[in-house]
Design a protein that fits this description.
This protein is α/β, with parallel strands linked by helices and 319 residues long. The chain is built from nine helices and 16 strands. Bound molecules: flavin-adenine dinucleotide.
């Protein structure tokens, strides 16, 4: 079997799990085995059932009263116990912060190599893989060895496709967990602002950089995003200067976005920012410098001071 670790937050599925399952299905077919989804935490079997549409015929729900919140070592230990009972050919996870962290713990426990952010796999004794490196600026071809192949799937690369199955056989697994695997765990949660659209999922993002000039300057961006039903993001300069919270940072060390339209205001387009926004279908850059990398890469560019361009745009939209 191929074990696919489903990323979810207290039962809410992360759509990148479906990207992972799409690649897992291909790997399973080439290996001549099936895909078993691993769901950690007490969740309704309804979630497991929905995975039938993505080629899953078997799901293992690891339930334990301490697994409902994320705890990387405890989750990893759980997957290791499932693996030792099932001898999978491969264990796959999402190439998100959480998926990469979890699989790295699993790799360390199993003393096996792991490949992060994989986009293509050709199975064999070792797997020939292609994976995203350097924040998406290059693809690397590599060989993945190990008795069990451990890999995460690069987010937002693999198009999701369905492959309906009759139904999912659900198995419950109760791991044995020592207190010491709960050294890192979620203690409390902070709810996002009510009504705030998540950057990663927004269909329109208005981003601001150093050119915005101040935290107050972001008022214009908030207004524009509000009118267009989008989210506001920022460059690392904007978050480092405290103009926006870190959660709003777009880029290599922030969130990767893939909206239909990204409006980049006063952002130069440094490579570390670009890798976070290049998944946007269209980019409109507003910048005083026509030579800024963001301006040369954008689909549309307005050369001008954002403090004049944005009020004009907002006034037009209000009409
Ligand atoms: C390891 C590492 C990780 C990093 N991760 C990230 C990351 O995740 N995200 C990220 O964004 N950066 C990241 N950075 C930082 C990155 O290298 C850049 O420094 C940063 O993106 C620059 O931010 P900026 O475009 O806002 O500022 P600047 O590069 O200073 O650009 C400001 C732009 O605003 C324009 N401008 C100025 N005034 C106006 C105006 N009135 N109207 C219109 N335009 C105006 C200027 O012409 C300029 O193009 C990282 C760097 C490192 C080393």
């Amino acid at each position: 079997m191929i074990l696919g670790i489903i990323e979810h937050d207290r039962g809410a599925l992360n759509s990148q799990s479906l990207e992972m399952l799409t690649l897992a299905r291909q790997v399973a077919a080439d290996e001549g085995v099936g895909v078993t989804a691993v769901l950690i935490g007490t969740i309704s079997t309804h979630l497991a059932d929905t995975l039938a549409a993505y080629g899953v015929s078997h799901a293992i729900i690891a339930s334990h009263d301490r697994l409902n919140e994320y705890a990387p070592e405890a989750w990893a230990e759980t997957v290791v116990q499932i693996a030792s009972a099932n001898a999978p050919k491969a264990i796959m996870a999402t190439g998100t912060d959480r998926g990469n962290e979890l699989l790295a713990h699993i790799a360390a426990r199993l003393n096996l190599p792991m490949a992060a952010n994989v986009t293509q796999v050709t199975v064999g004794d070792s797997y020939a893989i292609t994976r995203v490196r350097w924040g998406g600026s290059l693809f690397e071809e590599a060989k993945l060895h190990g008795k069990i192949k451990l890999l995460t799937v690069a987010p937002l690369v693999q198009p999701v496709s369905e492959s309906p199955r009759g139904g999912v056989t659900i198995e419950t697994f109760t791991p044995e967990l020592d207190d010491k695997v709960f050294r890192v765990r979620v203690n409390s949660r902070e709810a996002p602002e009510a009504g705030k659209i998540s950057l990663a999922e927004a269909r329109l993002v208005v981003g601001g950089g150093r050119g915005v000039g101040s935290a107050d300057g972001f008022g214009l961006l908030d207004e524009l995003a509000g009118l267009l039903g989008g989210a506001v993001g920022g460059s690392r300069v904007a978050t480092n200067l405290g103009w926006r919270p870190h959660a709003d940072q777009v880029g290599q060390t922030g969130t990767r976005i893939a909206p239909d339209l990204y409006i980049a205001c006063g952002i130069s387009g440094a490579i570390q920012h670009w890798v976070g926004c290049k998944g946007s279908k269209k980019i409109l850059a507003i910048n005083t410098d026509p030579e800024a990398p963001m301006m040369t890469k954008a689909d549309y560019a307005v050369i001008g001071d954002l403090h004049k361009v944005l009020p004009a745009l907002i006034a037009e939209l209000k009409k």
